[in-house]
Design a protein that fits this description.
This protein has about 270 residues and is of the alpha+beta class. The chain contains eight helices and seven strands, in the order H-E-E-E-E-E-E-E-H-H-H-H-H-H-H. The protein has two domains: about 1-105, Carboxypeptidase-like, regulatory domain (Immunoglobulin-like), CATH 2.60.40.1120; about 145-265, no CATH class. The chain has helices spanning about 1-30, 125-130, 170-180, 180-205, 205-210, 220-230, 235-240, 240-265; strands spanning about 30-40, 50, 55-60, 65-70, 75-80, 85-90, 100-105.
Length: about 270
């Protein structure tokens, strides 16, 4: 009799355990189905990811935003999609909504410091195109609307390149040095040399060229600007247009400051 009663108690215990297990299994087998939409225009969000953080399960929406994922009470769902803020939902009651559960995500605005569009799909394609790139002539400045570079050699300051050179003895040399005629010839050569240098400088610093960089209004202002800059001719003839551009901008800034200071000093 005692054996039968003990056996009956064991059967009841096993029955209660099976009922609890089946109930727990049914709860874990609940499927939440729904649709992910945009909160602003209620359009479908395709291929959004729904992750059950508690069960470590994932589900991907189809093109219409539909999804299904196993849930239990108290689970945390995380919904992510490109272009939208992450959404979080806590399953408080599994008996409320199991079908057509609505999920809405807020659009996310990405702020980019800089965006560069490129026709190349891969880095390898870019490297190949870069290797095949045909570089423009380094002397060409047509893209910046600058006049082309002009290579000019400065004439020698020796008198022979400016006027016929006459050789003579020491007396002739003293006469050419101290006589009025000699002084006038020397002054003439200096004037010719100065005019030649100014002509070369203006060839390099032409009005169209300079006025395209800084707001020079007239040729007179250009002459004042050139006098203010005191450019070294050899440097001016050797420097590239691109370096000269930045130099002119900096010189013009100081040129304007000097014009402002002059009335104040007076």
């Amino acid at each position: 009799m005692k054996s039968r009663s003990f056996r009956h108690s064991v059967y009841l215990l096993i029955l209660f355990l099976n009922i609890g297990y089946v109930s727990n299994a049914q709860e874990r087998n609940l499927m939440l189905k729904g649709t992910v939409r945009c909160s602003e225009n209620y359009e479908y969000i395709s291929f959004a990811q729904i992750k059950n953080e508690m069960l470590n399960l994932r589900s991907i929406c189809n093109e219409q935003g539909d999804f299904s994922i196993p849930i239990t009470k108290g689970d945390l769902l995380k919904i992510t999609a490109i272009g939208y803020e992450d959404g979080f939902y806590i399953v408080e009651d599994t008996g409320i909504v199991l079908l057509n559960f609505p999920i809405q995500l807020k659009p996310r605005i990405y702020e980019l410091k800089e965006l560069t569009l490129t026709p190349y799909k891969t880095v390898l394609q870019f490297k190949h195109a870069f290797a095949q790139l045909q570089l423009a002539n380094e002397n060409s400045t047509t893209q910046l609307n600058f006049p082309p570079l002009t290579h000019i050699r400065l004439p020698s300051a020796e008198p022979g390149h400016l006027a016929p050179l006459e050789l003579g003895g020491p007396i002739t040399a003293l006469y050419n040095t101290f006589s009025h005629k000699g002084k006038m010839e020397k002054k003439y050569r200096n004037l010719i040399e100065t005019d030649t240098k100014m002509s070369l400088i203006k060839t390099r610093l032409s009005f169209p060229f300079v006025s395209s960089i800084v707001p020079i209004a007239s040729n007179q202002e250009l002459d004042d600007f050139i006098d203010f800059c005191q450019f070294n001719l050899e440097y001016l003839l050797a420097v590239s247009d691109y370096v000269l551009l930045s130099v002119i901008q900096e010189k013009y800034r100081k040129f304007n400051e000097s014009k402002i200071l002059k009335p104040a000093l007076n």
